[in-house]
Amino acid sequence: MNSSSLTALPAWQALKAHAAVLAGQHMRDLFAADPDRFARLSFSFGPIRADYSKNRVTLETLSLLAELARARGVEAGRAAMFAGARINTTENRAVLHVALRNREERPMTVDGVDVMPEVRSTRARLKAFSDGVRNGQWRGATGKQLRHIVNIGIGGSHLGPMFVADAMKDLQAPEMSVTFVSNPDSAQLAEALAKLEPAETLFIICSKTFATAETTANADAARAWLTARLGETAVAKHFAAVSTNVEAAKTFGIHPDAVFPMWDWVGGRYSVWSAIGLSVILACGYEAFDQLLAGAEAMDRHFETASLEQNLPVILALIGVWYADFFDAPAVAVMPYDHRLKLFPFHLQQLDMESNGKAVTKDGAKVETKTGPIVFGGGGSDSQHSFFQLLHQGPRLIPCDFIIALKGAGGPSRDLLMANCLAQTEALLKGRTAAELASTPEALRPHREFPGNRPSNTLLLDELTPYVLGMLIALYEHKIFVQGLIWGVNSFDQWGVELGKELAKSLMPALLDKPAAAEGLLKARDSSTAGLALAYLQAKAQQ
């Protein structure tokens, strides 16, 4: 990675001057000047077509952005990741989640050791275990078939598999159910367990360290619920685990055949492709999961080999940098017009903001520019009736991503979805001028005028299959990585979440005590934290 000043680069300065010129132009005029704009500024790769013509960009803009990417070492950074280099410098780790969906015989190495034999072995074990559960060979302690899957995790061990399982729900076996639990508030687990039969329930504990506080609390509660009904010996038949800490999982009582490894070269938010996807495999079958991997692998090969100018993740990354740093856009809105993708924005929030929400570069210097944007969104139809008002008429510029499948449930409902999706992108582009409101009462015109010139990308999916879903997720993973390379940050650590965990751990002794004794333990805290903790203790004492 080039560690020189980002903003001093000639490529950056050229973009700054170019942005000043484009800032005075409306996208209406860009379309009027170029009838072939859509053809020039859209890109197809397999079953995904990306339309980025509704952006404040020209071919010159994209060329200048590509020069910036080269100046920031994007090509070298890309090669380093695929080569298994330790590009997560603050944790001294390789970043090789791409190996998890490598289905070829191609070796992928970390420190000169090919990781693929172990990856393939784990895949085979996942298939054998999931097939056994689904066909009844692996049964519960009472001999009943396991039909209810409860995934216990948090962060990447929760958001990724929950999103993917929901997106592939139409492939789920009718006799199987899958539930995701992450919140240490016992109400969430209690609500999930109230509907389940213990003899037919399999818990999957997903924790990289097998020591994550929230996951451990829920795992212990689930264990107590099960053993109170079926006895201690039932744990070996009703629990599975995914962790780097295999010994701790076995100590918990989990059968060795139901303990699956993770590796330190896989970050949590990139782990759905690993054994963390076991809940997806159990619910939807290994074949569907394999197609998910195949789609991601296709996007990996494209990202790795295509030139920057013809590389879909790179193009979307550069457009994102353009708005964040040259138009001061604080956020990105993501709206899938497919109910099965409704959880995608939540997965992206972690993927993007945990990766690039950084204020220092890899070498410890303060960043010179805005880095990771705020990511928000939701199902397109619902979002139109909530935050779209801000997108259209708010004073902040917020670029948008629209995602819709061309094929799906047919009839008027599909037509209505497509009409709404395309209309929203058109409205953001065109707006409504004062001249177009001539018949509107003058007092209402300012309220009904839309500035337009609001940018958007539209991703047209042929059909939402597991293969296309894998491509879509990998597309955004690589987009975020490229942006991190340009900004010079480490996209693969997350030190910002650690301080709160450490302080929570140090607060626990006081919160377990009585108010009088706790006062001494809380003296070192600020008055607000101490006062709130004492209020909690007093309420607890009165229960």
Summary tags:
single chain, 543 residues, alpha/beta, Rossmann fold, 3 domains, five-stranded parallel β-sheet, 23 helices, 13 strands, 48% helix, 11% strand, globular
Arrangement of strands in the largest sheet: 1-2-13-12-10-11
CATH architectural name of the largest domain: 3-Layer(aba) Sandwich
From the alpha carbons, calculate the radius of gyration and give it in angstroms: 25 Å
- CATH topology (level 3) name of the largest domain: Rossmann fold
Tally of domains: 3
Strand content: 5-15%
CATH C-level class of the largest domain: Alpha Beta
| Percent range of helical residues | 40-55%
Distance between the termini: 57 Å
Largest sheet: 6 strands, mixed
Global mean pLDDT? 95
The parts where pLDDT drops under 50 for at least 5 residues are none
What count of helical segments does DSSP give?
23
- CATH homologous superfamily heading of the largest domain: Glucose-6-phosphate isomerase like protein, domain 1
Shape: globular
Structural class: alpha/beta
Number of strands: 13
